[in-house]
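Two records follow; treat each independently.
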Amino acid sequence: MTGVPSIPSTPTNHERLLRLSAVRNRVPYSRATIYRLVASLQFPRPVSLGGRAIAWKESDIDAWIQARIDGSAATGAR
């Protein structure tokens, strides 16, 4: 044994995907505003699930929310 931890062959952290309704529950924006922000590259892009279905990676939404919080704290906004 070399003391190097082994890497599991299957990931243990599964990425959750959020549909639009779940994203809207987490951010204070309408459907139209979310899509406008996506188009202007100010909001995470969704991933295609096939056909016409899309979803957002939960980690992307969490990071976007945290960036808003961090930006707000840096400017002293409440």
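The next record belongs to a different protein.
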Amino acid sequence: MQVNEKKMMQSPKNDRAGVFLATLAVLSILAAISACDVEPRKSDAQLGLNPQQSAGRKLYDSHCDRCHEPYSTKGKKGPGLKGIFQNKYLSLSGLPANDERVIDIIRLGRNEMPGYSQTLSSQDIQDLLAYLHTL
């Protein structure tokens, strides 16, 4: 009888461990499923970028990506830039969504965004602009 009593005493502990392991397994499966929504980064060729746009993408990765999502309207620190030129006005500033305004923002900055006139050449800005037009 003492052996059965020991088993009965351990039973709630084993049940809790089983529930914990089952919960952990379910959470692991949910995490794996949600990770499937993330698309792998596409190559320049897959995106159909020409050499100027490809150069602009490299500049974007170096200077812009830390604050702006390229293929989303949701931003990080700054606004997402997907479809930036498809709207008549820029999302936060309300300025016209055209080359001149975007170049001004890149060169001079705006609010929390630093200006890049001392960092990027005029050719770099044109390359970056060409890439932004692909978003």
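Discussion point: The domain at 49-132 is CATH 1.10.760.10 (Cytochrome Bc1 Complex; Chain D, domain 2). How would you locate this feature using only the token line?
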